[in-house]
# Entry
Amino acid sequence: MKNIYDFVVIGAGISACTFASSLNKRFSDASILLVEHGRKIGGRATTRKSRKNKILEFDHGLPSITFSQYISQDIMTLILPLIDSKKLEDISNKILLMNKFGLLNSLSTNDKIYRSLPFMANFCESIINQSTNPKKINFLFQSLTKSIKRGNNLWKTQVNNEVFIESKNLILSSSLMAHPRSLEILNTTSLPLRDAFIPGQDQVVDALLRETSKLNYIKRKIYILHVSNLVLVQNFNNQYLQILFSNVIIDNLNFERIIFQRQSDGSIIILLHCSYVNKKPEINIDHIIKSLILLFMNYQIFLDLFLHAKLIDEMDWRASQPLNHLLPKELQWSSIGKIGFCGDWFDMGSFGAVETAMNSSIRLAKLLNWN
Ligand SMILES: Cc1cc2nc3c(=O)[nH]c(=O)nc-3n(C[C@H](O)[C@H](O)[C@H](O)COP(=O)(O)OP(=O)(O)OC[C@H]3O[C@@H](n4cnc5c(N)ncnc54)[C@H](O)[C@@H]3O)c2cc1C
# Structure
């Protein structure tokens, strides 16, 4: 007999995993399939193993997770076991702020800033592991969805332009298939979500599509540098250090933050996050190193690292974080279309994007009745 899932979720990032885990706690028998384009769970909270040097492993997406002092009880319930078991480490004291004069100060904040251990990608796994009945949560990786159709009260999700997977409900954990950027990324001529409904058929979907067209994203480019000189890196006393740049530096150089991650062989990976809103600035690596040397001229240990650093990779995030026009939470579920939405593109009244994504997913799971 053909398998019909109760829920197909597009994506396997923090939103999808929080949704799956929260729904599973409510309805432990509901079958869920997470369909993910990437090779593993995590989405933007991702960790990369270098292909050339297998020892190197580092977080090249979301660097840390910020929870505000107004964190919801539901999120607390999910993260407390992770804090207790040291899978989430409070890194507030491993974050410094560089002011416009190039001086480093400790960060003063009421927020809690965490890093998932051993890597950021493990955060999603830890969330899924907290489900009541994890056997009911299935994954399909390396599976891109470009087309979704609804007929005879069932959703049909097409995967890799081939198979159709059937489900009673469909959840989009990413804005991609509802946002204009999908035209270029998925190489389509119309939005997959628009194609699934005739205009006027579903008011929630119509309103959601109107709203997403106004949503813009912060883009980020990450430069990945490696310092392999083991004698030199001995003088650097940190296993992990994140330095946030002040607004003046962000405005002038597009440098947002720089992160130092110690590797298992003692060497150091340096990740420079450059953020921009519109056009990507053309900056080459020589210019970057010169600018870093100027910025850090008061700190010899950093100068030594930059002088010996080699660029090993670059990563473009064309939609790293929503910037404006978050969607109202009333648009999270359509009972007519049996389609739901969650992620950091909803306005949940919370502060950080991850907290927003998790709140929206927990809220959606609470809204639903699956049978
Ligand atoms: C470099 C970087 C820095 C960041 N810094 C911060 C920060 O400082 N503070 C902060 O709060 N947030 C930050 N963010 C944002 C944060 O990472 C996100 O808010 C969070 O990870 C959202 O998770 P998500 O599950 O909603 O989305 P995602 O992680 O994007 O997950 C969506 C998943 O869906 C998959 N998918 C989408 N469409 C399809 C499709 N059609 N078929 C198959 N799969 C599909 C994608 O592959 C992806 O894995 C940063 C992000 C990046 C990349």
Residues 217-321 form one domain. Residues 10-16, 35-38, 43-45, 61-62, 66, 144-145, 173-174, 176-177, 220, 222, 273, 317, 320-321, 343-344, 352-354, 357 surround flavin-adenine dinucleotide (CB under 6 Å).
